[in-house]
Design a protein that fits this description.
It is an enzyme of class 2 (transferase). The protein is α/β, with parallel strands linked by helices. It has four domains: 5-158, DNA polymerase, domain 1 (Orthogonal Bundle), CATH 1.10.150; 167-256, Beta Polymerase, domain 2, CATH 3.30.460.10; 260-336, DNA polymerase, thumb domain (Beta Polymerase, domain 3, 2-Layer Sandwich); 347-592, Alpha-Beta Barrel (TIM Barrel). It contains 25 helices and 18 strands. It has a five-stranded mixed beta sheet with strand order 2-4-7-6-5. It has a five-stranded parallel beta sheet with strand order 14-15-16-17-18, covered by helices on one side. A three-stranded antiparallel beta sheet has the order 8-9-10. A hairpin with a 2-residue loop joins β8 and β9 (293-298). α1 packs antiparallel against α2. It starts with a helix and ends with a helix.
Length: 595
């Protein structure tokens, strides 16, 4: 059965909801386990069906052996007997309501049961009709305010605001940066940070959560709810508040006094799996963790110690500070115990960008760039790069003869040579090309044209549905060409649009390491490809990586930070990234196939 990750995640959340409806106290640990597993699946970049086929489901953090066995049963038989047993007494009409903001399992179950709503296809419309007719307010235990809240939540849901709607990282980051900048204008805001999956730089983000260190929470909260681009205030308390933006995205704010801010920042940044593991470690030391600090029994009393920074919080546990991107419970706590957390690659380490599409009239097989080469060169100089590579798509093979393609590339080389002479004091320019790997594994242009290039990035742009064996053979054949140095956007995924194509990654990693080929981490917002889990596997195998922006305009070159974020989530250091090398060493690698 080929269920997608979102479908599996929703199934697990439905099981957790069923447990909560039956007996929230009795099934507390089951509820936590299923929610934790669903969170892990939401954040992973790899399709579970691919992990299942490769017998690697055990590599997925946050999913215990029992739930993993259920997922295996799901793929094998198309159903899970245990899930059917848990769900059988719960009306199917409950579960569509759980997609609506503010609807929990008990609330949904009560509405369905007390108003006899049995059709899952119409249940949301049925609840809307009941609320508009005033029937819910008249029912004991609801009231007028509850009824209005239900109508408001359904309206937001109808506009696309659901619990599972996720933003790609760059969009969420841009949204958060605007809010953070606004909050910093408040004199009472001493520190402002995003939280959760956004601070961990996951590829997709749910709602945006922000923390503020302040001695005057009232002033900060009042400033926050006055944000000019909100549509309404969802709630405001003594320490927290939530608003809805005109984009229909929810922003949650929480405050903490500066002396305890490090504890809050740690608590609401780490994934659930990371925090659970950290709490278990603390308990083994006789300590108790919370968003307020660390408790320790002294003289029979619980004494709370607060921490103003995350570093102080982790150090109090005798742990090395763990970068947010690593906090997914995939071995980082064990490294922190040993004081062996790696020094992850940083944006400032990047020395060049090798995947730039200019507006040069190369008459490509795919989309052209928007800006002239000189504009992109000026941007690279502003970014303090030592080198760049123009890698437009190869000229269309269906519209040009081999000799015409050669002439186009020869003329482009003349243009690049002129620019080399003009900018030689500032940076080095490579004549690269992004070349299609055709379904049979051949590169789209012939060897005579390829010889005009300093090197080629090769990539798949068609026939994505080939089986694993055929696709792997295709990719490795294309990558084996002597001019092919980098496999661009290696999985072909488009976030929220297209899943990865099927490759045998162990075979790909072994080939790249043996032949000194590099895999690209493509920083384009809808790609973020290679995904972080595969980055980590590549790093473990010793495969070389390149972080590129795949820019089609000079402004896109700022996407580099998102590629670096993916690399950091994959535990990559500066030594793992080829284009962190200074020019002379990078040039040796490109020309001589040596690191």
């Amino acid at each position: 059965m080929n269920m997608t990750n979102p479908e599996i995640s929703k199934l697990l959340r439905d099981v957790a909801a069923a447990y909560a409806i039956k007996d929230e106290k009795k099934f507390r640990f089951q509820i936590i386990a299923y929610q934790k597993a669903a969170d892990s699946i939401d954040y992973t970049s790899i399709e579970l069906r691919d992990l299942y086929r490769e017998n690697k489901l055990a590599s997925l953090p946050g999913v215990g052996a029992s739930i993993r066995s259920h997922i295996e049963e799901l793929f094998k038989t198309g159903k899970v007997e245990h899930f059917q047993e848990v769900l059988k007494d719960i009306p199917a009409s409950v579960f569509p309501l759980l997609e609506i903001p503010s609807f929990g399992p008990k609330k949904a179950y009560r509405l369905v049961s007390e108003f006899h709503l049995i059709n899952p296809e119409t249940v949301i419309a049925d609840v809307t009709d009941l609320a508009q007719a005033g029937e819910i307010a008249r029912h004991q235990g609801f009231g007028e305010k509850s009824q209005q809240d239900i109508l408001q939540a359904i309206q937001e849901y109808s506009l696309g605001k659901t619990k599972t709607a996720r933003m790609v990282l760059p969009y969420a980051n841009e949204l958060a940066e605007k809010i953070v900048a606004y909050l910093k204008k408040c004199p009472a805001a001493k520190q402002v940070y995003p939280l959760g999956s956004l601070r961990r730089r996951a590829s997709t983000i749910g709602d945006v959560d922000i923390a503020v260190a302040t001695t005057d929470p009232g002033a900060v909260l009042n400033h926050f709810i006055a944000y000019p681009y909100k549509t309404r205030v969802i709630e405001k308390g003594d320490r927290t508040a939530s608003i809805l933006l005109s984009s229909e995205r929810q922003i949650d704010l929480m405050t903490q006094p500066p002396q305890g801010f490090g504890s809050l920042l740690q608590h609401f940044t780490g994934s659930k799996a990371h925090n659970i593991h950290l709490r278990e470690y603390a308990i083994s030391k006789g300590l108790s963790l919370s968003e307020y600090g660390i408790k320790k029994k002294i003289g029979g009393k619980d004494i709370l110690q607060q921490y103003d920074t995350e570093e102080a919080f982790y150090n109090a546990l005798r742990l090395q500070w763990i970068p947010p991107e690593m906090r997914e419970d995939t071995g980082e706590i064990e490294l922190a115990i040993q004081q062996k957390v790696p020094q992850l690659v940083e944006l400032q380490d990047m020395k060049g960008d090798l995947h730039l599409h200019s507006s040069y009239p190369i008459e490509p097989s795919h989309d052209m760039g928007q800006d002239a080469m000189e504009i992109m060169i000026e941007k690279a100089i502003a970014l303090n790069y030592e080198y760049i590579g123009f890698a437009e798509h190869n000229p269309s093979v269906s519209k040009h003869s081999a000799s015409q393609i050669y002439e186009i590339l020869e003329n482009r080389n003349k243009q690049i040579e002129q620019l080399r002479q003009k900018y030689q004091k500032y940076l080095h320019i490579y004549a690269l090309l992004e070349v299609d790997i055709q379904p049979n594994g051949d590169l789209a242009i012939d060897n005579t044209s390829l010889e005009l290039l300093d090197a080629a990035l090769v990539s798949v742009h068609s026939a994505f549905d080939m089986d694993q064996t055929a696709m792997t053979k295709r990719v490795l054949k294309g990558l084996s060409h002597p001019k092919a140095r980098i496999l661009a956007h290696p999985t072909g995924r488009l976030l929220n649009q297209r899943s990865i194509y099927d490759l045998d990654w162990d075979v790909v990693f072994d080939f790249c390491k043996e032949h000194k080929k590099a895999l690209e981490i493509n920083a384009q917002p809808l790609r973020l490809d290679l995904p972080d889990m595969l980055v980590k596997a590549a790093v473990k195998k010793g495969v070389q990586l390149v972080i590129d922006t795949d820019s089609h305009a000079a402004s896109h070159m700022d996407f580099m930070e998102y590629g670096v974020a993916v690399a950091r989530r994959g535990w990559a250091t500066e030594q793992n990234i080829i284009n962190s090398l200074p020019y002379k060493r990078f040039h040796e690698w490109l020309q001589n196939n040596e690191r």
